[in-house]
Structures are given as structure tokens and as C-alpha cells.
Design brief:
The complex is a heterodimer of chains A (207) and B (474). Chain A has helices at 2-7, 32-44, 61-65, 72-96, 124-150, 187-196, and strands at residues 11-13, 19-29, 50-53, 100-103, 107-110, 174-179, 201-206. Chain A is of the alpha+beta class and 207 residues long. Chain A is elongated and about 80 Å long. Chain B has 16 helices and no strands. Chain B is globular, with a radius of gyration of 23 Å. Classes of the chains: A alpha+beta (207), B mainly alpha (474).
Chain lengths: 207, 474
């Protein structure tokens, strides 16, 4: 293990002679089936810090890469429960009680026992629509927010976004990227490995 | 006049006119025609936004729409400065054009969510060709819908009373009223539709960013693409999130129009107080929304050369949905009459006879003619696949559904329990101006969307092409 880390070059010379840190290697593939097969081999080779960059979600590629199923649904479930309770408490507090309550002793609010059209104060059936809407609202906002948070987005600067060839990752090309911080990354060997997978082009990505 | 399509089709030898409305003996007809590879899809969608000049027809439509928006501004300002009395509302008919327009616009929005969420859950792959602009239509329609109750409250500077905001008066909204449920339903619907639409847009904005040449375009698309780089680990979470949003939007869309129908159904007024309203309103909403999608899709695919992605098969499928929902609406009309008679309730019976034969009989017959009778033409495949006829029929349905809301709202209010309080409603120029202005606002927003954002969900269309299958022969 230690010999491998010593061999690993951490800098690359760029065209204008300045040196910059090597961030990883990027291999370009032409078809979904090519990247699908290659991804299985990268996974089997034991790499951990690597990724596929594809213009659309290639069916089954996440499983092939060994990506674990995300826990977003669990988080959203609890967001929904929170929304439902908030909806109920909001309505019960404001329309059915005369209680006083404060938000961190800054904003003081008082409920108003609102008797209307002969309905009981705690008229749960008429509270259902708003409870439902707040449940959906909080769940949907959580879904989108947590998805972006877990993906580390927004992130406007990324080594890959500086590469000209990578522009086609959002069009019609498929990329496998192995990062240099991976324990098994050795520039020469990883480069040969990627070329052996049938990549049409392999390129260094600088930080 | 040179349109984008005529200029581009010549450069695009891949475009072939294929009839994909018939499935071959084995398997399915292709959903994308004439695109040999993924780049063709990207290019045929993005070229619309990247064309240095918009087609002349776009500018003409934009100029007309923008002047209508200007007129809308005049009408709204006049209303706010003077009072709601500038509309033709009177004592019995306190809801008329404003709430008709509100319900009409909310209903139109529903087709977008149906296409984006419900068809997604049902794995209807053809939705990918039309979902992006149908969702855009939803958002713009809900903006127009929100305008009407917003200005109908009269003293708009008190509109914040609709929300539970702590205030020095210790005053809260009345949560047992359907009108307040509406605030929450429509507000949630707008927010969730916007989030759903934007999440769907992120990968395509990244495509636009990567193709952009100018600094401004790079910055603008790049900023909103949030640095999306198509990582499969991101796509994994993205797909789960998209599925969840679809699963959340589906009950939401059903609830929104149900809540809108509660505005009427929970009241005591004959003609409004019926239990069939929630399902009937939802079916009507989908019916009118699909008609509006058709009204927008037919010119858009002609003008921007998207016939290979929004194919005849897509239009054929939408026409079938219009036919089905039209029949549901027709059933609801009949059932309302049956129940009015079967209930034996004097006022209920009168309300329905008055609807069909009273002072608004002409509106009732426009409604039945446009919503129940003419859509039956879609039983014939020749009509379902004829572009001019389906366009004309979609306009007829839009008009018919507007009259449906007008009939329900105005005829019930104008002749209620006591003949001494009967009256008739006549629109003023402000009523008509606000209605036309809202149509202008909608088309302005839609035209801007067509010009600056990818009209088709590029990544989703690519994923349903046969080449996208990693186990395919390709």
C-alpha cells in the first residue's frame, strides 16, 4: 500500500509549462452499452472514488456501479409527518384554543377560539385539506432540497467542467472518471486500465 | 416568412415523415422520429433557443400578447383604485367572470401535472415529448389563476390576511372555510409544480450551458444548472427524487381541483351543493388542460420544427385522453340532472331546469355542444390524426370549458331561492379586458419560455430511445 502511494504522481505538467495538481483521469465512451460494461470492470477493480458522467440516466448503471440506494424516501417520509403535524397544530392552535405561545420569546401569538357555523372548536374534518396540503408542500420541498444537498449541488466550479471534451457529457458522450485520491490510483496503470476498457479517449483532469 | 423549422429541416436529412400512430405487429412504434443519435435530439431541441433570431410569427405573437398584458395592467390598476364594482358584479351575482377565469385557469394547469406526474407513474414513455412545456403551461396557468381571486378580494393591500401571519391584532384566518383551503391548495400546487419543473430542467440547463457560446448565456444557463455534470451518483438520487415528486404531485393535483370544487359544493346554493363536484371538476380540469396542451403543441411543433419529437402519435394519444375525459364530463352533466330530479328537492330541480332553459340557456348549450358533442368526433382516427381538425377542436373545448364554469357559477347565483333577489349578470369592459389580459399574460410567459428554455425534456427523450438501452444491439 505504501509503495503505491509513493509512486503516485500528484502533479501534471500543462501545456504552458505551469504545474497543477492531477485531479483524476477521464475516459470517454461512445455508447451506453460500452460504459455499462466498463463500469462493471471499474467496480470489480476495487476503485472507490470514481464516477460515470452520462447525458441521461442509463438504465441500471447505478446498480452496475454498486451505488447504494439513497435514503431520500425515508427523510421525505419524516418531512411529510412533520408537515401533517404542523398543519394540524397550526389550525388547532389558531382556531380552537385561546392559548398564548411565543417563538423564542420574540414573537408572541395568541390563539382565537373561533366558533363558526355551529362547528365544534376542534373540527378535525375541516382541518384535513390544509393538513394534506402542508404535508405535500413540506415533502416536496424536502425531496428537492435533500436531493441537491446530497449531490453537493449547487457547485459551479468543478475540475471536470473545465475540460473541453467533457462538454459532450451533457450531449451524447459517456465518461468514466477515476479520481487521483483513490487508494488504487496510479496514473500510468489507471490510464492503461481505462484504455483497456474500450475508451475512445483518456485524458488527465487537473485540479 | 422563414420559420426556424423550414430553415432547419433542410439541414436535417434525418427527418422522415413516418406514421407512428400504428404499432408494428411486434413491439412498439418509435417515439422519436428521424433522430439517428443522441446528438440529433440535443440539437433539434436546443437550436430553437440558439437561433440568433426568433421566427417572425414569434415576434407577432409576442407583440400581441405583450400589449394584452399592458391592457391587463390598466384593468387591474383601475379595479384597485376604484373597487370591485368596476366589474359587472351585482348583489346576487357576486362571483362571475373573475371566478370563472380562476377555475378555468387552474383547470388548464392540471393537464401539465397529469402528464408530468401521473403518466410518469404509469410508465407512459410518450410523455417525455410533451411534459416540459405542459409543466410550463401549468405554472403560467396557475399564475393567471392566482391573479383573479387576488384582485377580487377588493382591498388587495389586505391580501396577506389570507395567510396565518402573526399580527398585532391577534387575527387568524378561518380554517374551516373552503376559500382558505383554496389558498393553501393553490399555493402548494404552484410551489410544487415549480419545484418539479425546475428539477426536471436542471440536466437540460446543463446541456444548454455546455452548448452556449456567449458569456451571458454561459453564465445564465450555468447559474441555473447549479453545476450539474451528469454524475451517475447524482442521477441515482435525482431519479428517486423525481419519482417521489411525481408521487407527491399526483394526489396533490387531484386535491387541488377537489378543493376548488369545495368552494361551491360546501355552500348551500342549489346547483352548487352537490357531491359529484370533486371528481367532475378534476375530470373537467384534465379535459380542458389537454385541450390547451394541444392548442399550444400544434403551433409550437410546426413553428420550431419539433415534429420528429412531438410526433403524430403523441397528438393521437392526447386526443384519446380528451375523448375519455370529455365523456366523463358528459356523464357528470347527465348525472347532475338525474340527481336533481331524483333528490326531489324543489330548488335543486329548478336550478337545473333553469340552467338548461333559463336566461343562460345559450351558455348551457355552448357548454354541452363543445364539451360533450364535438369531442365525440375523436372516435374517428382520421380526425384524431388531422392537425387542423384537432387544433380547431381543442379551441372548441377550451371555449366549452370556460362556459362550463360560467354556467355553474352565474346561473346558480342569478336565480337562487327567492325570485325577488333574482338578477342577471352583464360583463363590463373591465371584465372582458381582464380576461383577455390574462390570456395575454399566459401567452407572453409561454412565448418567453419557448424562446429561452428547452421546450422538450432532452435527457428524458434520450432515455426512451432504443439506443439508450445498455443491453441493446446498438
Amino acid at each position: 500500500m505504501s509503495t503505491l502511494t509513493i509512486e503516485r504522481p500528484t502533479t501534471a505538467r500543462t501545456a504552458d509549462g505551469s504545474t497543477s495538481r492531477l485531479w483524476g483521469l477521464m475516459a470517454e465512451f461512445k455508447t451506453p452499452s460500452a460504459i455499462f460494461e466498463a463500469a462493471g470492470k471499474v467496480r470489480d477493480a476495487g476503485y472507490r472514488h470514481w464516477d460515470c458522467h452520462v447525458p441521461f440516466p442509463v438504465h441500471g448503471l447505478d446498480k452496475q456501479m454498486g451505488v447504494k440506494r439513497t435514503i431520500i424516501p425515508v427523510i421525505v417520509f419524516f418531512a411529510g409527518l412533520t408537515g401533517c403535524s404542523v398543519g394540524f397544530l397550526l389550525q388547532a392552535f389558531t382556531n380552537a384554543t385561546g392559548a398564548e405561545w411565543s417563538f423564542w420569546a420574540i414573537v408572541w401569538v395568541t390563539g382565537y377560539p373561533f366558533l363558526i357555523s355551529g362547528k365544534p372548536l376542534l373540527s378535525i374534518p375541516s382541518f384535513i385539506p390544509v393538513m394534506f396540503e402542508i404535508t405535500i408542500l413540506l415533502s416536496a420541498l424536502t425531496t428537492a432540497g435533500v436531493m441537491l444537498l446530497f449531490n453537493g449541488l449547487p457547485r459551479w466550479n468543478h475540475p471536470l467542467l473545465a475540460k473541453k471534451r467533457f462538454l459532450r457529457a451533457s450531449d451524447d458522450r459517456f465518461f468514466i472518471v477515476i479520481e487521483s485520491r483513490d487508494g488504487r490510483f496510479i496514473r500510468s496503470k489507471t490510464e492503461d486500465f481505462l484504455k483497456g476498457l474500450g475508451a475512445v479517449h483518456v485524458e488527465a483532469v487537473e485540479d | 416568412m422563414t420559420t426556424v423549422s423550414s430553415a432547419i429541416d433542410r439541414q436535417d436529412p434525418g427527418f422522415i415523415e413516418v406514421d407512428n400512430t400504428v404499432d408494428p405487429v411486434s413491439g412498439r412504434a418509435p417515439l422519436v422520429l428521424g433522430c439517428r443519435d443522441f446528438h440529433d435530439v440535443t440539437h433539434s431541441v436546443c437550436r430553437v433557443n440558439e437561433a440568433p433570431k426568433a421566427p417572425l410569427a414569434w415576434w407577432v405573437a409576442f407583440a400581441i400578447s405583450l400589449s394584452l398584458v399592458g391592457f391587463l395592467g390598466v384593468c387591474v390598476l383601475y379595479l384597485i383604485l376604484t373597487g370591485v364594482g368596476v366589474w359587472g358584479l351585482n348583489n346576487p351575482v357576486m362571483w362571475a367572470f373573475d371566478i370563472t377565469n380562476f377555475v378555468w385557469w387552474v383547470g388548464i394547469g392540471h393537464a401539465g401535472t397529469l402528464i408530468s406526474a401521473i403518466l410518469f407513474l404509469f410508465r407512459q414513455k410518450w410523455r417525455t415529448g410533451i411534459n416540459r412545456f405542459a409543466e410550463a403551461m401549468t405554472i403560467f396557468a396557475v399564475i393567471c389563476a392566482g391573479l383573479f381571486p387576488g384582485i377580487h378580494v377588493g382591498r388587495v393591500w389586505f391580501a396577506y390576511w389570507l395567510f396565518p401571519i402573526p399580527n398585532q391584532m391577534d387575527m387568524w384566518p378561518q380554517f374551516r372555510s373552503p376559500l382558505l383551503w383554496d389558498v393553501f391548495a393553490v399555493g402548494t400546487y404552484f410551489t410544487v409544480s415549480l419545484v418539479f419543473w425546475y428539477v426536471g430542467l436542471i440536466p437540460d440547463l446543463a446541456t444548454m450551458r455546455d452548448r452556449a457560446t456567449g458569456k451571458l448565456r454561459q453564465f445564465a444557463y450555468g447559474f441555473f444548472a447549479l453545476g450539474w455534470r451528469g454524475s451517475m451518483r447524482h442521477w441515482h438520487r435525482y431519479e428517486v427524487a423525481y419519482l417521489l415528486l411525481a408521487a407527491l404531485a399526483t394526489p396533490l393535483v387531484l386535491s387541488v381541483h377537489s378543493v376548488v370544487s369545495f368552494d361551491f359544493a360546501v355552500s348551500q346554493l342549489p346547483g352548487w351543493h352537490t357531491t359529484i363536484f370533486p371528481p367532475y371538476f378534476v375530470a373537467g380540469a384534465i379535459f380542458s388542460g389537454f385541450a390547451m396542451v394541444m392548442t399550444l403543441a400544434v403551433p409550437a411543433r410546426e413553428l420550431f420544427g419539433l415534429k420528429n419529437i412531438i410526433t403524430l402519435r403523441h397528438l393521437d394519444n392526447m386526443n384519446k385522453i380528451i375523448l375519455v375525459t370529455g365523456c366523463i364530463v358528459g356523464y357528470a352533466y347527465a348525472m347532475e340532472f338525474f340527481i336533481a330530479w331524483y333528490s326531489g328537492a324543489l330548488y335543486e330541480k329548478f336550478a337545473f331546469l333553469n340552467r338548461a332553459f333559463g336566461q343562460y340557456w345559450w351558455a348551457y348549450f355552448i357548454m354541452v355542444g363543445s364539451n360533450v358533442i364535438t369531442p365525440q368526433l375523436f372516435w374517428f382516427k382520421a380526425i384524431r390524426t388531422s392537425i387542423p381538425l384537432m387544433f380547431a377542436l381543442s379551441i372548441v373545448v377550451n371555449i366549452g370549458m370556460w362556459f362550463e364554469r360560467f354556467v355553474i357559477i352565474v346561473s346558480s347565483l342569478a336565480n337562487d331561492f327567492l325570485p325577488s333577489s333574482w338578477d342577471a349578470f352583464f360583463p363590463t369592459w373591465v371584465d372582458i379586458g381582464t380576461m383577455l389580459g390574462a390570456i395575454g399574460l399566459f401567452s407572453t410567459l409561454f412565448l418567453l419560455f419557448c424562446r429561452y428554455l428547452p421546450m422538450i425534456a432532452i435527457a428524458e427523450v434520450k432515455a426512451v430511445m432504443p439506443q439508450a438501452d445498455p443491453h441493446g444491439q446498438h
